[in-house]
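Q: Entry one of two.
A:
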Amino acid sequence: MSEATFDYIIIGAGTAGCLLANRLSADKSRRVLLIEAGRRDDYHWIHIPVGYLYCIGNPRTDWLYQTEADAGLNGRILRYPRGKTLGGSSSINGMIYMRGQARDYDHWAELTGDRGWRWDHCLPYFKKHEDYHKGADALHGAGGEWRVERQRLRWDLLDAFVEAAQQAGIPRNDDFNRGSNEGVGYFEVNQKDGWRWNTAKAFLRPICYGRPNFEMWTGAQVKRLRIEPGPDGGLRCVGAEVWTGREMVSAAATAEVLLCAGSIGSPQILQLSGVGPAPVLRQHGIPVLRDLPGVGANLQDHLQIRAVFKVRGVTTLNTLANSWWGKARIGLEYALSRSGPMSMAPSQLGAFTRSTPQQPWPNIEFHVQPLSLDAFGEPLHDFDAFTASVCNLNPTSRGTVRIRSPRFEDAPAIAPNYLSTPEDRQVAADSLRVARRIVAQPALARYQPQEWRPGPQYQSDDELARLAGDIATTIFHPVGTTKMGSDDDPLAVLDAQLRVRGVAGLRVVDAGAMPTITSGNTNSPTLMMAERAAEWVRRAAGATAA
């Protein structure tokens, strides 16, 4: 590992990186290196679905980022989990399979000037790697690597919430992935037979490990990209400097470098390499190779407001998991049938609707859980309750990711700037009213729900927006920090094929490339983008060879 040359170097073995490694190493004539800063995914809690509780906040599997103090959250600092292991965030996330809405991709096509990003063009790339539990149809694929299953549980309380949502005017929806996700129903998940299905299992094992042209380095962190003058007088990325934990290694790429370190890691690496906003780079003594103001700008995330309601006469996970017999029952059910609470995604039930009737499309998403706690990672409450977390699907607030120093070991400064626009504060207030309207329906009356948080005494827009700042937290969907865009967009870091503007041989393939956040969970859209990028890289190699 003192010096190595490959055709392709993929930085980050997360959601996008694992798929790219699979697709590019299929060409036996091309040598592929996959670099991952974390360790292998051999930690048992990665694979048990409820194990996200033990992976988030654990240095074994999480980068342990934190946000800056956020004015929109009344000065609070949030934990900001990002996966640091094979599979990346697909090894610690909520496992929810969600594409978003067709209009998300049609909007990307407008922003990039490339019709290839429209929903009808993206759909085949979702289907290509999908293995849908109901089999293939016009909108789903079967036989691919990415398994999508029903959840292996049900709760009386959640069934009642579905009925209450319908009484409140939200239609039933048993498939959120057909272009319009409006409605209420149980989420489908990336699991296989009750185990988490991460991208390392799906795309690396066993096929990549058996390919002689594939090499993988784990526990290896990229210090910076190697960017040099190209033969045409411009800049070209020719590799990366990598710290293996023992030595600094120079890895060379003769074709392309694919940066897949995520919405936080990719802008950090670019800035450390001299690609980014010139004032930020100069502040830290980094030579400016390419002034791209959009690197680390445009950060978007889904902020979930956790409304909690106490209930009576129904079992929730609060009381079930707070007793020795309940824990024994949970463990036995999972051991015998891979079902029950240990097979749970963090959120089991979803609802997509409009914060007000005037909204032209569903603009809020509920994640409903038969449990409650003060904050993620804290103990469950000692009373029965459920949580109806709600997020603004299309926030207008924008944040930043900026390096703190020229040291690659130092985490960047993450400033989401939540609730920093009047539009976002209004949607926050309105979405809490939607939660109250659902809970007030007859279907839930038998459980006598009482609003515990934020509290029924808060009614005005200003009160609800301020309380949202007190109780809201990230839902772990950062995107947009290396966005693609049209030639006349001054913040566009990438072109429509995810190539870094002004630096040949370099693409960014992760959620940071999204110009706007999708209307739902972001893992599967990232896989779709990687599937498209793999095709472009192969075509470019063919053109070069020709």
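Q: Entry two of two.
A:
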Amino acid sequence: MALVAASVVWIVRSQKKNFFALNPVALLESAFSKNEYSDQICRIPKLDINAPAIIKFLHTPKLLNCNQTETNWAFIENGRFYIADEAVRAHGPIKCNHFRFWRVSDDKLASDVISDVQNGSMIEKSDFFRAECNATKNMSWSNLFATIVPDLSAIEKAKAVKKSAAATNLNVYIIGFDSLSSLMFQRKLKKTYKFLVQDLEAVILEGYNIVGDGTPQAWIPILTAQTELELPLTRKRYKNASYIDDVYPMIWRNFSERGYVTLYAEDSAAFGAFYYRLKGFNKQPTNHYMRPFFMQAEKEIKNRRCIGSEPQHVTWFRYGENFFDQYPVDVSKLTIMHHSLLSHSDLNLVELADDDLTTHLMRMRDKGHLNNTLLIVMADHGPRFAKVRETHQGQLEERLPFFSFIMPPWFRQSRGKLAWTNLKMNAKRLTTPFDIHATLMDILSWPTDEQLTDFDVPKKRSMSLWRPIPSDRICTEAGVEAHWCTCLNWESADGYASEVNATARALVQVTSASSACNRLAAGE
């Protein structure tokens, strides 16, 4: 309710004479239509990173100790399995078997066994396996592994695709986090933020506004340019629900058709964006798909924050890094990753990943993987469930997640020079997940200089950030419903107590009616 304060004041100020004659629907329609209030330029609120109302909920979490007994006996390097020298010194000769597993469906895995795997053996057939190892001193050890086994047919297909002159052939690496506002990212991932801004020269979107509630409502517009309600029914509790890949125009298809090898990696099987409420995928959606690993991990591992002696998030980071390690440089890559374990339900835990995320991004840079890559580090939305969400600033932060772009220096100084200038300008304007879809599509067919300098463009719901976005764009034009819009002018309601109370009651009525309508539209 706090987010409609400006509209309440506008209603009271402009309609005071016949205030009680207006019905609730008329009140809201008058507040959010093209009028003296909503026709103003969108002004994203400037929030205090050290706001006392937020800071009081923050603390430094206890260190994550995954090495309670000893370090992992084995590791993978350059696609090969190795037994650690330290483990051999401690336990004598070690023999290992591999229990490989892979996807049959989003609910079922298949597996096989490779016995007596030799030290230095190449990993084959599947990205995922459990190593079970025995030492001569009657000791045993097991652990799950995730790596990249290159899809040779995908490489052949990628190289066979005729490259369009309009294509950039840039890799795209998206690494996302759950429930991190732009300010919370800066508070909790300080080293990462500093590295992004100072070393990688990231552009941070200051006006990136969510368009719905929750992770699917963040990712679906990015991946399809549409909302869940605009697309066919995929909610799994309905008998007539479709699989997502059968009816959603997922953007990784566009990239695959243009010769990209693709990867999608969420760090949760049970609560993933496309599995918790939705039906999931009929066929494996991308060339590499991490769901099987976490299906098995959630069965076997009690402490989900650790994979053996290693933090879970480090295993997850490495999977994305291995994707770039194992495929040839001349094969274009689309990587989409989403992490929720440390950030979804707790404001503070994600701080445990700060050093490791910084290290991961440094390794990606130092290995040259970012030389031809558009890197996006982002969040789906801000905190939704924590106590901070009960504060006024917390409600605003929920709607303003972290979103950043990093472009290779050579590209932004040459072919992408105009686009980079536009991006920096657009960073201060209203942008949404719909715009990210258009931005990614431009990677496949780069705009002409004329398109990149055309400021007289019609306002659309999806507008590429490489192109000029009008400075007077408002929420209704960008596809942001009033409930989620942060472009509000806050004014004091002093002197209007009775009118504000009456309007608040009207808003409750309209909200209840709107929720009922949405449930009916969604088939609930």
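A: Comment on entry two: Residues 493-524 form one domain. Confidence is low (pLDDT under 50) at residues 1-39.
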